[in-house]
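2024-03-11 09:14:02 INFO receiving multi-entity request
2024-03-11 09:14:02 INFO entity count = three
2024-03-11 09:14:03 INFO echoing inputs for audit
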Amino acid sequence: MRNPCDKRGTNRGAWSKEEDRKLIDYIRLHGEGCWRSLPKAAGLLRCGESCRLRWINYLRPDVKRGNFKEDEADLIIKLHALLGNRWSLIAGRLPGRTDNEVKNYWNSHLRKKLKSMGVDPDNHRLTQKAPLRRSRSSHSASLSTDAVTSHENMKKCSSTVLPDLNLDLTICTPSSLEGQRLDRTATPTLLLFH
DNA sequence: AATAAGCGCAACCGCCTGGAC
DNA sequence: GGTCCAGGCGGTTGCGCTTAT
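2024-03-11 09:21:47 INFO inference complete, emitting structure
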C-alpha cells in the first residue's frame, strides 16, 4: 500500500477486548468488505490494514489456536521445501492456520529443528557437518512425465500432481514462462527450470 | 528476590499485484 | 498504456512472558 495507514488519530499496538468486539460485531453484520472504510463504519480508531490483520490472524471463527501438531509441522517442512517462503500458500494447506502463524512457527521452531538435524532451513539441504541422514522433507518428488499441465500457456512444461500435498509440480524452461505472471493465489505450483 | 537474556507472538511496514478508470 | 486505489503478502519489529543466573 502506498499509504497504508494514516497514523494520526488511530490506535496502534495491541487490540483491546472492546475493539475486538466492535470488529467482530461489524463483520458479523456486514461481512468482510472494504477494509479501508471499515474502521470508521465500525467505530474503530484503527487503519483498515490493522483491522484486516486482526480479523484474519486472530478473530476469524475458523482460526485454529494452540500448538502445532507433529503432522502439521511435518507438512510445513515439506511444503517449505517445495514452495519456499510462500507462507500464504503453505497456510492454505493447513486448515485453520494463518500465514502469520505458520511464518512465526517456522522462524521460532522449525528453523532450529532443521538446523539441529543438520539441514539448512533455507534450502533444505544437508549441511556439511550433518549428523543425521537426509530428512524426508528434502526428498524430491517422483515425476510422471505423462501428466500434462492444464495451463494453456505452459504447453512446453510437463507436470505432475503430489496427491498428499495437493500440489502441482511443473517442469518447464524459463522461456515458456515469458510474459507470464504467477498467480499467488492459485493452486500451489512448483516450477523446476531445466 | 532481582535482573538479564531468550523466546514467542501479535502487529506493523513497505512492496507487489490486479482491477478500475 | 498510464495512474491510482485497495487488498494481499512476506519481512521485520517490539512487547510481554518465561527461564536462567
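2024-03-11 09:21:48 INFO post-check: The domain at 17-59 of chain A is CATH 1.10.10 (Arc Repressor Mutant, subunit A).
2024-03-11 09:21:48 INFO post-check: Residues 99-116 of chain A form the longest helix (18 residues).
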